[in-house]
Structure formats: C-alpha cells, structure tokens
Amino acid sequence: MTDPTHTDDSGYWFSAGERERDAGNFRQAQLCFERAAVLSPYNAVYWSELGLVMYENDESGADALRCIRHALELDPRCAAIWCAKGVILFRQGDPEAAVVAFQRATNLNPREADYWMNLGLAYAALEEYHPACQAFEIGIEIVPTDVSFWERKGTVLLALGEKERAEHCFANARRFA
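Structure (tokenized):
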C-alpha cells in the first residue's frame, strides 16, 4: 500500500524501486523507478535504474538503452551508468560495444572491481584473452581474495595455453573459496 505522504517524493519511489528490484519484483520496480524519474526528470541514476529493470522485464532493449542514453546525457561522467549500458549491450550480444562502455566505466572509476570483471568478460567473449587477463588482474589487485577473478583469470590463461599459470589461479580460487 502506498503511503500518501510520499506520493510526490522521488527518493521514496526510488528506494521502493530498489527494494522491489532486490526482491526480484522487476515489474513493480519498474513502476517505482518510472514514478521517481517522472518526479525528478533530471536525476540520471533514476533513468539508469529504470533502463536496467526495463531490460530485466524483457522490454525492448531499445527502450532500455534509450533510458540509459538519457541518463548519460544528464551525467556523462557517471561510471555506474556506463557500466549499466555495457551490461545491456553485452546481454544483447554486442560484446564489442560493451567493451567500449566498460572501458569508459573503468576510466571514470578504476577502483570499482565489478567494472573490471565486466570488461574482462566482454573481452573473453570476443576471444581477446590478453586484455581479458589484464582486466581480471586489475580486479585481483582491487579484491585479492575474490574467487571469481581468480577463476576467470585461470580460464583465460588456459585459453592462452598457459597451463601452469592457470593452475596457480585455480589454486588461489580454491584457497579463497
């Protein structure tokens, strides 16, 4: 039930959208994010989250990307929005465009490990294993005990034929698991 005292509070609607999204209720989250964006049309994060849940709701990828592009027009220096764009592009099967978006995100915020993971995955999907390995190595520098980074780096090293280095990575993954 909606609290009538919050009907014009964009922050309330955004928080409600986050709760619904985190609970897996993407349709409800979309309605909340739409309301937040209508109430605060210049808030780039609201538009970005709306685009992400639209994509989760199997809305047209074009509509989701339109929201992300609008968010980037409002705040082109927000790394999280560039990452959101990359996620949608990657899921749409365009890893080349995703790499560009993830590179932008890592340039804007090089200390966010998730951006490096996404960049590495996009490079790996393109079978560009050397830059994928570099992205995973930077992620390991940021979070040295992250099992996923060690596993992904090991997988990429196997693809490069570097079995001994790969085994070292898999051993670290097991150690940190």
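Residues 95-177 form a domain with the Serine Threonine Protein Phosphatase 5, Tetratricopeptide repeat fold (CATH 1.25.40.10). Residues 52 and 84 are 7 Å apart (CA to CA).
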